[in-house]
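Lab notebook, bench 4. The sequencing result for the construct came back, and we need a structural model before the next group meeting so we can plan mutations. Quick request posted to the team channel:

Model the 3D structure of this chain.
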Amino acid sequence: MTTSTTEATAVRYEKDADGIVTLTLDDPNQSANTMNDLYISSMKAAVERLYDEQEDVTGVVIASAKKTFFAGGDLKGMVQATPDDAASVFAMAEGVKAALRRLETYPRPVVAAINGAALGGGLEICLAANHRIALDSPSVVVGLPEVSLGLLPGGGGVTRIVRMFGLQEGLMGFLLEGKQFKAAQAKEKGLVDELVGSREELVPAAKAWIKANPEASKNPWDAPGYKMPGGTPKSPALASFLPAFPALLRKQTKGAVYPAARAILSAAVEGAQVDFDTASRIESRYLTNLVVNQGSKNMIQAFFLDLQAIKSGSLRPQGIEPWQATKVGVLGAGMMGAGIAYVCARAGMQVVLKDVSDENAAKGKAYSEKINAKAVSRGKLTEEKSAEMLERITPTGDPSALAGCDLVIEAVFEDPALKAKVFAEVAPYVNDDALLCSNTSTLPITELAEGVDRPKDFIGLHFFSPVDKMPLVEIIKGEQTSDVALAKAYDVVQQIKKTPIVVNDSRGFYTSRVIGYMVNEGMAMLAEGVRPWTIERATTQAGYPAAVLQLSDELNLELMGKIAKATREAAERDGTELAEHPGTAVIDKMLEAGRPGRLRGKGFYEYDESGKRLSLWEGLGELFPVAEEQPPIQDCKDRMLFAEALETAKCFEEGVITSAAAANIGSIMGIGFPPMTGGAAQFMTGYEGADGEIGLAAFVARADELAEKYGDRFRPTQYLRDLAASGGSFPA
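Done. Here's the predicted structure in token form:
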């Protein structure tokens, strides 16, 4: 016999002849389940019914009718919350957890049957069960990634993880880094208890476990004699180690303040010292503080809303059929070309890796062999899969080997004549409608298109180094690039599992142009006499992944000098006025001193013979004497952040970039803009002034302050002032 409810609900209730109730998560209004109002009321009603029918119930299975098990919290709702909504946010969190706690303490076994992704709130539902069974499939991924959105797992995640694994493992293994695990990894880690091979086996396996374990209705922390793994904060072993946690967190974030990580640490440690229900309430309070403040809004905007929009094709021309490349010719087997060949082969494409000789091309293929060998040694790739992938890469010096290529990606030196030459060599052999792409970081695509016979099929693909690790590709549309070529390029980037942003043509495009201003600002401070270590610490404390002088060494001052020269020449040719940035004088001085960067073994830093970075060069003090009066470190941080943000605003003004999502994701993933800001556009629209005012007006006011102290390059343009005055924002 099966009984079920008929009214609209996000949690269907079905009881079988054995008395086992299956609660099926199935929001009728959405393609994915989230912790919205309908779910909260539906789960509460389902749990009430379980208690009402307790005598006839032998166990409970939590299942899902969606492709994903459960998508997590209602992030769109959270973005709207303000400090005035704190009480309702807290009540919402407590309401979500009250139903799960009642389900967890239900006097019958409860099993979660995980058929798809269970991240954040989805896993928190599963953690309230007594047993977790997952489908062993690539589509199943579990974890608590809230920290990456400026939040903490506030549906019981912190409280239960700490009780399952102890403070040390709970924090380091699951909570502070927001790690996500495939099904087999989750079982290995203890997040999942059992795996099944097919979707059809899930619910039957859950029911079988209930029948075999009719008394298993208590989680360890609710059973008599429970002791927290590794001890509580009062335990001698943990008490001696615990004080190091804040220092470890600070080291991990390089001094940058991530409120979510700090809140997780606090909620975990405080919660470990009290009973479960008090710990859960502490967790809700910390969650509320994060939800109503600006930090989480910035990160949710970038890492959920913007990323989701880009993945769904918001920047792709509409009405053009999806396209897949099958055979790609990569021109140039240097570091960039070798990396591009690797990601294309990994995505299943046939790759012809072309260089001046077979020998040079073979060296490029060796890059993929090296990556695969490392993956095989770590058990992440089988020998068979590695061999299969490497077979797809054909190294050659012969242009005719590119016959049948429907995609060409050129990755030779930044020389327009050389780029034109390599395209001309392969033009007779590739398909007539092949997509022609140039990997360049600064050269205008419209000018490069003059070197090919099909400019409408020509587009820029700016990869970032190392290609196998960096997640972003900047697509640059030239003046003659067709919408079909742009759509194809977008599809190619997604085919190789990278994130695309689309920009219009200009010197430096978006990412290279913007990062140049941050680097120049760091060097301008050095010229003014700011202590080198202050500059470095300000960069990392602002949230950048690498200190600015260290980054300059990596980027290479010789290359910067060439770019500066090319920019001057372009300005002279176009008859435009170019304001020389004070940072460029530092480049000239360093080059005169014979210290161009890491590649030559000496730059702002010293390097040993193996290329390992040592400390800052002692001679910096002589070249750039330290001033007696030092600026506030907040000014040093803001100068770099505002330099990039103001240039981003100019890119919007000039039409180089037309999407806030592209600006945010491009700045974070491409050039390391601090993630907690939500990206360069969100940094401006979500800027919080000293008086608590939030928005572009507060950003403009602070920019004017910086301009008064450090120069007119910080003065916002009239475009930005007008946008701020109208209460507007950048196009989505």
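The first strand starts at residue 3 and ends at 4.
Will bring this to the meeting.
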